[in-house]
Request: fold
Amino acid sequence: MMNMKELEKIDEAEAAVFKKKLKMLKAFKGKGTELISLYLPPDVDRSLVMSQLTEETSQSSNIKSPTTRKNVQGALRKISNFLKRINFQLPERGLVVFCGNISEQEGRSDITLFTVRPLRRLKVKLYWCDSQFHLDPLEEMAAPSEIYGLATLDKREATFAALVGKKYEVLGRITSAVPGKVKAGGFSAHRYERLREEATHDFFKRIAEKMGAIYLVYGNKMKGIIIGGPGATKNYFLDQDLLDYRLKGMVLGTLDTSYTDESGIRELFQKSEEILKSTEVMKERLAVNNFLQEVVKGALATYGQKEVEQALAEGKVKTLLVSEAIDWVVYRLLCGHCNNSEEILVKNRFGLGTTPKCTKCNAEAEIMEEVDYADWLLEKVHKIDAEMKLISTETAEGEQFYKTFGGLGAILRYK
Reply:
């Protein structure tokens, strides 16, 4: 099970930006084994890494293809320069550097460097050169910080699981001593039915207690519970009002399943997609509607690139809303002539055109890193202890937010 301390550190926007970057990186394919992935734990030895990069540069001279050799050496040089530029100051969880020729045009080189801050602390250093970026360790971290409870029950047994991301883990199972419907000898039908009802009630109390013991430990990471099982028993259980008051409001719905063991949990998981999707939709609608209310009141809201960036710079932003449809890029530049560093925003990834020029001395500047605009905004949000929400265009509210406000808006702390 994922460590709760690790879950606590991951906010929704960070996880969303992380997934967006992985999706982008996964799409890049090299013409040969020329895409480099470098995983750097926070306590990795600097001299060891730099020595390895020097050694890999030397070894790359043996690559037969002149184009591949040039691209690999260019990527290694860019990684070395980047690490020197940041003085090897790594984030507390470590850093992953991806670099290589991502051009889709034959004969054209576009050696680009990306960095990813992992959601969990890196433990092992890794260097990988292939025709695609090595993302497996990061994809394992991509599970969201939200947890949902899955429970299946009838009068015979109950099984409990936790859903984190796209994986569930069975956490417990209990069985009952509720007698069957066939009357035992020596009992009147009325008395036998009463004994069955008492046994059922006692079992339901055990189910409620078990659910409390399992799910309440997750605290505010537990976002909802879905209950499954055959027939109407699951609804009868809820009607008994036995659940802890903190869990009652978390019940998102009930679904019919054929079984109540682990196969029932699997069936419930497969059927729960629409319910879980609707909760995400509701959260998104709430965020956009809160923003719209502030806009209508003419109070604590602003929108537009210039206005939002200014509010961030002044520390006014409480909640930043960013549409997933925005695919702008920030290039971090370094001038080799005057050592000036700066950032430029490009609203079309392939719209940079010619080699950028230094704004101080007009010499050609080197692109040190390409950063997704949402990730760039997230860095600024964290600096002022605000929150950020990525808004999809899959809902009417999300689409309206993108078309009407350009996909950038903020609820402010003060005017």
User: Anything to note?
Assistant: Residues 277 and 283 are 10 Å apart (CA to CA). The chain has three domains: 4-139, 147-271, 285-412. The longest strand covers residues 167-175.
